[in-house]
Each structure stands twice: as structure tokens, then as C-alpha cells.
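Re: duplicated header lines in exported C-alpha cells

Our pipeline writes sequence and C-alpha cells for each protein into one text file. With two proteins the header for the second block appears twice in some exports. Here is an export where it did not happen, for reference. First protein block:
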Amino acid sequence: MKSLFISFLVVSSVAAAPLSAAGCGGNFTTFLSTLTLELQAEGLSDSQAKAFLHGARIDPEVLKADRAQGVFRLDFDDFARRVISRNRLETGAYQAVKQGPLLQDIEQNYGVSRGVLLAFWGLETDFGQVQGTYKTRDALLTLAHDCRRPQLFLPQVMAAAKLYARGDFDPLRTRGAWAGEIGQVQMLPRDILENGVDGDGDGHVDLKGSAADALTSAARLLRHLGWQPNAPWLQEVTLPDDLDWARTGLDHPAPISEWVARGVVPRDGVLDPALSAAVILPMGRKGPAFLAYPNFEVLFEWNKSFVYVTTAAYFATRLEGAPVFEAGHPDPGLSKAQIKILQEKLSARGADVGTVDGILGRKTRAAVQGAQSALGLPADAWPTVGLLNRL
């Protein structure tokens, strides 16, 4: 089964990356010639730079994939039930045993829970089985040449070239996701260059062939992104009917002691009053509810989709023994077309919804909550037809 996630972009490592003088668009041969000089300026020899770029081409399938990320328009319930299959749960349990000593070492050295690593490993590539078929070098060059996000992909081209120069990347044979992620946990070249770990001790960082390298590198990347060692990330809770819904959402964290005082109780486990968390309602006040701890926020540096991050975090809790979430009876959500209309209306009111794309992402949810509050509606950040009509 083809993984649904190998193509969703990791953007954590390039926020401050400089633009390449190679620019974007225009003649591809000229683009490569300029890039050859830049690679030499980055420390590659003339022969290395030319060998890295030899035979490079634009891949039209990459551009097509870049413009069609429809899976992230599903709601949390549909998305989670689609991707957290019995097979993935069983394989995750099997790998937890098989990789037990490795996962224990990772937890001791990096403080990243095995459930989180197993969840990303499973969702990204079905535990290494589906790593992508796009030629990574050409995918990165295609997206760097394309003028939509060159500032994101040009640094990844440079990083891939440096991996090639040290013997950890083959420009002709390395394949992965359309957006350039490589290996069993789908990391971008710059993340591999900066956070890759030789977990099996063979002298190379091989995220494609070595589970030890992949899982250890993922843990190191999460720590680099701000993961708090040995701390929780997500916990399902039951909420009182009279909770102030405007206090929910990722932008409204509070001490656990305050949530307990407001009547929030865990469905499984206990709550630590020394911690802080936000209450998130992926499908509104009538659907499942979770406490999102600071480590949950770190996962947005791995992937920007609210639905993906919530699903991965929940999957990680399932792999560590949590029960199936209580689905509740949420109000029907909006279609892609309706969400685009909603985003346009919210934007016209001065709200920041990000891109008008029909995806109910984090910014759109916050804008929905603001509009609900202004209109005197329960401010649970879940848009309905009723809210759309009011707007």
C-alpha cells in the first residue's frame, strides 16, 4: 500500500536558509550551470559538482504531486480511521518488540518515546516498506527550479550534494518522496546532514536501509526541534458540557491544575498538575477531545498539517496502550468548497487564515474560533454550515 505521507513536506530545517543565486525559472541548463558554481562555493570540487548534476532533469510528476495534496482535507475521524489500520497497529507492536533494545537506547539518550518514533515510522513509510519512487536529486532540482518555493528547496539541493560528497547519497539511485524526503522516516537532506546518526555503527548514515539509523536520526531531529525529554505529547480527556470553549485550542494553553479545576478528566491514565497543556477539539466540542502538551507543538515542525500531526500523535498513544478515541457525535463538517468560501469570508473580516485552499488548518481553526466568539456561538473552532450562513 502506498504511504499517504511520504510527500508532505518537512520544513523545519530551512526557515532561515539563504536564497541561492541560481534563482528559479528560466532555462534549466542555465540554472544547472549557475548551480554548479554555487556547489563549488559550498566546498564541492568541480568534478563532484558536475557528477552530482550530471543527467539531471525536470520531473513533471513532481510538479503534479506538489499541487495535489488532497488527503489533508479529510477530517480527523476519517483520516485517523483510514490510516491507523489494524495491520499498522499490529506491525507497530511487533516492531516495538523487535527494535526493543534500540528503542530503549534512544529513549535513554534522546528522551523521545518509542510510540512517537513507531508512529512516524509507520505512517511515513509503513515501517520502511514504502519509501517513495521519485529520484530525489531530480525532485529537489525540479522544486528548486520551480518558482513557488525555491527558498525551501535550494538549500536541500545543497545538502544533498554535500551528502553525496561524503558518500551518503547517490544522485542516480537515491529515491524517495516527491518533495525530496528520504528513507524510512522521510527526512529532508538538510535534516539528515545536520541530525543524521549512524545508529548501527557501520560508518554511514543510511536512512533507507537501516532502521537503526532512521529511528535514531528521527529522535535526534525531534530533540533538535525542541522535544522535551520523557514528557507527554497528547492525552485524550473528557470535558464538562459547560466548559468555556473559547479557552480551547492550541493558542490557549493552561496549567493542568486549572483544567482539572474546570472539570477536565483523563479517559486513560492520570494528569500531572505540574504540567501545562492546551485542550484541542479536532472536530469540535461534540467530538473527541485531547490535552496537547508542549511536545505536540514540536510535531508541527515535522509536518505542518493539523490533521496529520493530531493523527500521528494519537497513533503514538495507541501504540503505547491508549484506547480508541471516543468519537462522540460531532456536527457535520464542511466540504472543500465550503471551507474555501469560509476562508474567503474570514479573510474579508481581517482574519489570517493562511492560504485559501479548502484545508481546515491551524490558522483557519483559530480564525473560526474568533468568528464564533464574535457571533456569540460556542467557540470550539469547528466550522459548520450554520457558521458559514451567519458569516
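Second protein block, exported in the same file:
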Amino acid sequence: MVQIKMYPAKNGDCFLISLGEIEKKHILIDCGYIDTYENFLKRDLVKIAECNEKINLMIVTHIDSDHISGAIKFIEDNNKNKFIEIDEVWFNAYRHLQSFKKDEDELQEIEKDLLEREIALGKSHLNRYNRDEITKDEISAKQGSTLGALLLQGNYNWNGKFNGGPVVSKDNKPIYIDEIKINLLSPDEDKLNKLEAKWVKELKKKKWNFTINKNELFDDAYEYMQMMYEDDSNITVSDISRQSQEGTKILEESIEIEFPIDESVNNGSSIAILIKSNETKLLFLADAHPNIIIDKLREIGEENFDLVKVSHHGSLKNTNYELASNLQSTKYLFSTNGFKHLHPDPQTIIKLLAANPMCEKQLYFNYKTETSNIFESTELQNKYNYKIITGNGEMPIVIEL
């Protein structure tokens, strides 16, 4: 048996995958915001521990606040009072970016001051966007308050399958957790190199002539700056009116239109995976770019999936027509409340439906959105042979296979 929980994570991601009947294996992918963890995820983690089970693999796909914030709070809680075992964590932090040589020279005091100020700003920014109310203590800078620092403090098995190095797709060899097979689709070395180049560019833009070294302040400053300066410059809001009577006709005309693909460096660094358990195949695409997913699926010769978590909350720039044609599935998951950038884009969904019109499909939305309303259409459901399942934002959607 395979169970997938898609949590209400606002405009973010949080998934718990449980596999097996007895001695279940659990894979946690992202943790949404702090509220996601505190209001929904934590109680399920406690239940897993009460059953003498554990998180066999925790993946934090990339450094965006809608994926990582709840993970920071989770690991902070678990460090203070360990309530659940975690076999391994996959997460690429500053220390895993390898393309730039890191000097051994000590930072000057003024450089330390600048980095500490940036950390304080980042901590304040993160908490402001994670909760309706925050305490004074949460605004203050706390050393070791980033995910990377907390993983080190808790002595977790961090990127163990990669010998402590970066989670990066170098070949097509699968990774095993007992009988569970995982293919890593993204990122590759090029995506990670671009991420580090972005970081160095940000430092230079601030006119900080730092000697980049292994000081732990860089780990914290890097993580917070990535979240503070998330790149939304390439976001395109759909020009299809969600209220127009002509919306369906215009929508169908967009099926083969190719939009510019996502160029966000943060999204490009996403950890995207294929999970295979017995005959069940699950694709979790984080916010990954479409080109790397297309290439990797072809290289490993995989098609026809049981479930696809659609990339970047259904953004039209992350699922082009070619990728949609490769994502043959009966179940598609869209994780977003639609408040940011109006995701998911209707063009993404119509591409996925049109690529496999004869097969009976289910579309899962963890919130009711303007886009989900479009696909409530009986005409569209009959034409493209699908059903729609919409959450209320107050409890997780549970999918069993």
C-alpha cells in the first residue's frame, strides 16, 4: 500500500509518502511554512514515532521559504526534544556548492558584522512571512537558526547516500532505501553551479569584496539571502481570463503554445525524484525545470506514472507541451492556494489532460482556486475524462494507491 498526504501549505509544498503495510517506510518531501508544520505535519510525525516507525528519508528540495520554513522549525523542535528518528536528510546548502574555491583566510570583523546583519534581516523576513504573529525572540538573530546549522547541531545523516556531498544527478544509478528505488532527476552539476554563481553575484552587487571561505556565517547568510531574494522575475501571470465566457476556447487553443521556460536559479536547483515501490511509480518534481526532467526520464527510460506532483505549483513555465506528453499518469497533484502568481496556470493543466485524453484521470488540488474552478466544468471533465478532487485548506488530502 502507498499513501500520499498533500498538506495545506499555502503557496508551498509539503508531502508525506508512506509505503508498505507493516514496518512502513516514510519519505517526507518539504515542510511548507512554519504553520504547515505546526498545524498539520507535526501531529502525523508524532503518530509515526508512536508506531515505532521513523522518517526514512527527508528531502528539502531547495531553498525557497515555501518549501524550507517548516523544515527549519521541525528540525529545531527535534533537536530540543527528539521525538522522531530520521534516517537521512537530503538538502543542498552552501557547503555543498563546490565550483568556487573556498579560501582558508579568516574573515575580517567588518565582514563578520555585515554577514551577521544579513542573517538578522533574513531571520526577521522569514518569520514575518511564516506566521500571522511573531514574538520578539523570533525576530532576533539566533546563531545556528538555519536548516544547515540545525542539521549539523543534531548530527543528522546529511546527504549520506552522496557521501556528505551535494545531492546531484551525475549518472542514472538508482538509490535504494531497502526495496524502495529512487531515481534522482534534478539537479545536475550545471544547475548547482548556477546557484553558486547567483550567490557570488549577489555578494558583488552589494559591493562586498569577501574572501569566500568555510566560516559558518556563510552557511547561515547564504541560506537566508536565498530566501530573501527569491527570484520571481520570470513569473508570467496567465492572460487567460478566468471569468471569460470564451475562456475554455482560448484555453484549448493554448495546448501546443510554447511559453518561455522557467529560468529561476533557485527552482533549477530543486531536488526532483522518481520513487518506485513494487510496481508503483511516483514523480515528485518540486519546482524543477522542464528540460532536465525530460532528459532524465528519457535517459532512464521511464514513462506512465501512477502519480505526478506537478512542478512549481502548476506554473506554465515548468510544464511545456513536450514534458506534458512525457507525464502520462492517472493522478496529478497541484499544491498551492493560488494567492501567489495565481498558480496553477490553466495552460499547464490543459496540456496534461490533452496529452492523455482517453485515460481516466484525477486532478488533486489542496485548495479551491480560480483555476480549479475552471476545471469543475462538466464539459471539460467529459471531454478529457477526468475527475477533480479539491481540498478545503483545513486538512491534508490523502491519496491511496
